[in-house]
Every structure is written in structure tokens, then in C-alpha cells.
Amino acid sequence: MELKVTTLEGKAAGSVQLSDAIFGLEPRADILQRCVQWQLNKRQAGTHKTQGRADVWRTGKKMYKQKGTGGARHGSARVPQFRGGGRAFGPVVRSHATDLPKKVRSLALKHALSAKAKDGGLIVIDNAQIKDAKTKSLVGHFSILGLTNALIIDGAEVHAGFATAARNIPNIDVLPIQGINVYDILRRHKLVLTKSAVDALEARFK
Question: I want to staple 48 with a disulfide (CB 3.0 to 4.6 A). Which of 63, 91, 125, 177 is the partner?
């Protein structure tokens, strides 16, 4: 697959040959869904917790005698039936992470890249660098390219000035190639890859 390369100024900068094994697959929604669910489960904190009857500080003395009162048989005041008692079956601190094989994760990334290439949401630029780290100038570049909602993937390191200028722009994410993931690709309308990012992806899946 051949794709035209452009600059941040919107000028032509040649073309690049994309591997069909990475960008030319027929996207499968089931694989993408499994990977997105795995990512969302993994990042969930799981720090929610309520106080059970063992956590509530309250007397454990029997409320009243077992027989002869005409009332129900009660013991501790910490039980969930009473106001101020512990909660029954409340959430506890735990991990929500699920397992997903590495091969499925790798395949899901290829399918996400292929999905963007198929629907015309993939753009390749020669580099992601600007002279002055100004948000206003970067917004001008993005308007030329028609980017309002995009994920930009650079090489091993993101240009510091570019990242600084982009962090104030809503709906624009900038990541190094190590941070590329299925969820961020799918949640943005456009995927912008630099030439170094394309080379790194092809080296990764070689």
C-alpha cells in the first residue's frame, strides 16, 4: 500500500510504502473489542471499598437477652440490619485486570492500524517538529491538515517543543511509538504517523 507523505505545512514530501501485513488487513471488530476491554480493565483502579461488619467500630455486646422480650433474636450491633452497621457484600479492593495473550494484543494493534488505513483516517507526515513551541502556530498547521481530533505518533522520542505546543489543544494526543495502543487509535478520528513511527512499526512486526 502506497501513501503520500506530507509536511506540517501541507506540502508534499514524497510517498511511503506501507506493509499490507500491518496496514492492509480486514479489521475484525471482535479482536478490537477484546483488546479495548483488556486495556480498560487493566487501568481501572479497583480501590473502592466499604466497611463490613468486621471494620465497623461498635460494641459486640448482645443487644438484649435472647428470650422474653417479644423482639427478634439479635446479637451484635455491627450487623448490616442496623443503622451504623457494616455493609453486606460491599465492594472490596481488588484488581480488575483480565488476561489477553500477547499474540492477540499484537494482532489487535495491526487491525486498528488497518481500520484507520481503510477508512481514510491515516496520515503520514515527514516529522513532528516545530521551531517555536507555540500552541497558536501548531493549531495553524493542524488546520491546514484538517486535524481537529487526532492521535499523533512520533518515533522513540517526541520532540519536546511539539509536545509542549500540542498539550493545550483539545482532542489531540501525542505519544512516542512505545505508547501506541488500540484504545487511543480508535478513540481519535485521525491517526498521524511520522516516517520514523512507520519504520519502527514495520521493524516491530517484522
Answer: 91
pLDDT tens by residue, 28-64 = 999 999 999 999 999 999 999 999 999 999 988 999 9
CB-side neighbour CA atoms (13 Å) of 94:
8
Q: Is 60 exposed, middle or buried (0-12, 13-18, 19+ CB in 10 A)?
A: exposed
The number of folded domains in the chain is 2
pTM of the predicted model as reported, rounded to 2 decimal places: 0.84
Strands 172-175 and 190-194: unpaired
Average pLDDT for 153-163: 92
Q: Which domain holds residue 70?
A: 50-90
- Distances from the Cα of 17 to the Cα of 22, 24, 50, 139, 198, angstroms: 11, 12, 56, 28, 9
- If asked whether residues 113 and 193 sit together in one domain, one would say yes
Model confidence at 26: pLDDT above 90: yes
Tens of pLDDT, residue by residue over 122-135, are 999 999 998 888 99
